[in-house]
Amino acid sequence: MKPVDIVERTSLVAGLYRQLELKPAETAIVTIDMHRGHLDMDVATMPAKPEDAKRVIGNAKQVLDFSRRLKIPVIHVVLVYRRIPGIGSEGMASPFWKAMHSAQGETDRLTPGRKSTVREHNVEGSPGTEIIAELHRDGDYVINNKKRLDCFYGTDLRQLLQTLGAKNLVLMGINTNTCVLNTSFTAFNYDYRVVVLSDCVASMYGDDLHVLGLQNVARCLGWVLSNEQLFEKLKETSDAVHA
Question: Which CATH number is associated with domain 10-79+132-233?
Answer without folding.
Answer: 3.40.50.850
